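Quick one, tokens below:
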């Protein structure tokens, strides 16, 4: 679970403040500055608790309890967090002299306020968990109805496949394999967020990540993300060996082009991508096995990067006719020549390539084509 960006916390502060104002409107003579401050303090504290900013180990232990015991303990814990937040916020309000109250009045929660705060907290937490479940960008797009009608757009896709997961499942069983996948997917999340990608789907042992074209090629974010993920897994080598007996390795394929993005479904909605790009990226990931290379990138994406990140080199492998496609694809292998701690701050550092997207013609779009990926469905955002 993500602790959130500065924008996330500013948004949560504004939402919490608005509920503080609502409380004043419902139970007092109207919104007041102390009420808004109480709402902000309580809301941010509850969200920080739910996000694991503090008492993360305690929350994890609660989740291991039987269902009924977990719900009871979670509700009691939430009430205690709310009461504590009210008291701490009240002491601050009293110290600043904002409220015309004694110290005891300022730090003692009102009986009507606790159920209100509990209900509001439950509502905010429920919304945030739905957001976590489907992804923040997908959640925003669904709320705004951005893809209610199909939209043609250019995107960069990254397909990641865990090497050896089938053999691991055969040796240790499906439950152990699921624990491995869960740990790997959790490790991938932070580098993807850092490089402003979005996880579109988990399909078996595969992860599908994407970027809008301009965002993905800017500072070669899509490439930097791949190697940031690889370094993240390698950095915890001892932990992986102790827990699972091996260090996860991923095959990766980067490709992009025009897709049709649309909101689909009736009882269950999702945002899906349609087009030959999805099929081609899946085939490119499969080519990793054939070529013995861990990271492949199509020339369609590589040619659009202003530069490669420091320490990353591209090797031309020539043209390949991918299964199910009549045209050949120019393919390159990417390798990291030296350890890199961050994406180059100078977007022109490294291997100079063609100018960025403003000087390039758009990718051809195929609105009518649908992805046909063996044992995989079209990616959902």
């Amino acid at each position: 679970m993500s602790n959130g960006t500065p924008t996330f916390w500013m948004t949560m502060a504004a939402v919490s403040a608005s509920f503080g104002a609502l409380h004043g409107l419902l139970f007092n003579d109207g919104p007041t500055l102390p009420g808004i401050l109480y709402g902000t303090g309580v809301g941010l504290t509850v969200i920080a608790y739910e996000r694991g900013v503090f008492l993360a180990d305690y929350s994890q232990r609660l989740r291991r309890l039987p269902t009924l015991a977990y719900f009871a303990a979670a509700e009691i814990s939430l009430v205690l967090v709310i009461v504590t937040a009210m008291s701490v916020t009240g002491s601050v309000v009293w110290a600043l002299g904002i409220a015309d109250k004694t110290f005891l009045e300022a730090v003692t929660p009102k009986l009507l306020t606790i159920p209100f705060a509990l209900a509001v907290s439950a509502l905010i937490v429920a919304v945030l968990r739905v957001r976590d479940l489907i992804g923040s960008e997908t959640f925003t797009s669904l709320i705004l109805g951005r893809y209610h009608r199909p939209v043609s757009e250019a995107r960069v896709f990254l397909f990641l496949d865990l090497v050896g997961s089938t053999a691991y499942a055969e040796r240790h069983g499906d439950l152990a394999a699921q624990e491995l996948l869960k740990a790997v997917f959790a490790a991938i999340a932070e580098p993807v967020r850092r490089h402003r990608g979005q996880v579109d789907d988990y399909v078996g042992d595969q992860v599908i990540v994407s970027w809008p074209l301009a965002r993905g090629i800017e500072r070669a974010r899509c490439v930097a993300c791949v190697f940031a993920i690889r370094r993240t897994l390698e950095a915890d080598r001892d932990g992986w060996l102790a827990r699972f007996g091996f260090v996860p390795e991923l095959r990766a394929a980067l490709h992009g082009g025009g897709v049709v993005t649309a909101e689909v479904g009736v009882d269950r909605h999702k945002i899906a991508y349609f087009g030959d790009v999805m099929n081609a990226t899946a085939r490119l990931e499969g080519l990793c096995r054939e070529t013995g290379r861990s990271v492949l990138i199509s020339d369609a994406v590589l040619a659009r990067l202003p530069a490669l990140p420091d320490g990353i080199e591209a090797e031309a492998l020539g043209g390949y006719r991918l299964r199910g496609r009549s045209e050949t694809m120019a393919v390159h292998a990417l390798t990291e020549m030296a350890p890199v701690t961050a994406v180059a701050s100078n977007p022109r550092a490294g291997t100079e390539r063609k100018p960025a997207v403003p000087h390039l013609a758009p990718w051809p779009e195929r609105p009518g084509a649908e992805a046909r990926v063996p044992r995989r469905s079209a990616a959902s955002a």
